[in-house]
Every structure is written in structure tokens, then in C-alpha cells.
Amino acid sequence: MERTFIAIKPDGVQRGLIAEIISRFERKGFKLVGIKLVVPSKDFAQKHYHDLKERPFFDGLCDFLSSGPVLAMVWEGEGVIKYGRKLIGATDPQKSEPGTIRGDLAVVVGRNIIHGSDGLETAKDEISLWFQPEELV
Ligand code: ATP
Ligand code: MG
């Protein structure tokens, strides 16, 4: 069954949005198969966002991801990668539709509270970066 990596970034955890976000994935019908709270090192954040290393915001983005607890999760279900990103909304919360997580709960792109894998390959890579196989049920 398809799986995706979803992370509530430090701003989402700090703002107390964990239950709200988990609830949206649960109500849709997706299945939680892995979850843990971690403070990633900057080196780890750079690994996670390696595709963006040429972008001007890369350094600030990695500093931010490693600035506090991140809730790392793996969700499972038919179409969960694509639909998970639909639940999350557009990268820039100014362009996210109301009803999406970023549309309802965030304002600026640098504090958009949640990450979701963008494809089958990245989902596999991100799940294996953040989780050991025995941490998944
Ligand atoms: P994520 O990978 O976090 O789920 P995404 O796939 O919607 O987000 P990406 O293009 O992968 O968007 O960008 C990764 C993250 O980098 C964004 O979530 C955002 O926090 C940050 N980011 C993207 N564009 C900008 C920007 N122009 N300025 C500042 N930060 C940005
Ligand atoms: Mg992305």
C-alpha cells in the first residue's frame, strides 16, 4: 500500500496544531503507521531538503527545520501521496485554498507548518531517511 512522509514543522508543533493536523488525515481515512517527535540536526535538515540546495532560502529553511521539535509521521492509503498534498495545500499559504491545512492555518511561505512528500520516489527516500523499518507498523 502507498505510503507518504508527513512532518509537522517546528512552527506547527510550537503553535499547538498537532491534533488539528492529525485529525484531518485521520478523518479522511488515511492510516497512521509511524510517528515520532524529533529535533533534527542542521545536517539532517540539509539531507531532507537536498533537492533545494541551490535555492536562496535553503540555509534559512534548514536552520528553521532544525530549530525545534518536528513531528515526523508516515501515513498510508490509496493515493495518499497526492491527496496528502491536496490536504496540505499550496506551498505559499497566500495561494493555498481555504479548507487546506496551509490555507486555514498559515500565512507565510517560510512558516507553512507542514511538509509532505511530493512523489513516489521522494516518499520512499524520506521515509527511509526519517524512520527505521521497525518503527513502522
Ligand atoms: P514541503 O517540501 O515543505 O512539503 P513544498 O513541497 O510545498 O513544501 P518546496 O518547493 O519543496 O515546497 O519547498 C520546501 C519548503 O521551502 C517550503 O515548504 C517552504 O517552507 C520553503 N520555501 C519554498 N519556497 C520558499 C521561498 N520562496 N521563500 C522561503 N521559503 C520557501
Ligand atoms: Mg517539497
TrEMBL record:
Q: Which reaction does it catalyse?
A: a ribonucleoside 5'-diphosphate + ATP = a ribonucleoside 5'-triphosphate + ADP; a 2'-deoxyribonucleoside 5'-diphosphate + ATP = a 2'-deoxyribonucleoside 5'-triphosphate + ADP
- Enzyme class, UniProt record, top EC level: transferase
List the record's Gene Ontology CC terms alphabetically. chloroplast thylakoid lumen
**Where along this sequence does the record place binding of ATP?**
9, 57, 85, 91, 102, 112
Q: Which intervals hold domain Nucleoside diphosphate kinase-like?
A: 1-137
As cofactor, the record names: Mg(2+)
Signal sequence extent: none
Protein name as it appears in the record:
Nucleoside diphosphate kinase
Native organism: Tetracentron sinense (Spur-leaf)
Taxonomic lineage per UniProt? Eukaryota, Viridiplantae, Streptophyta, Embryophyta, Tracheophyta
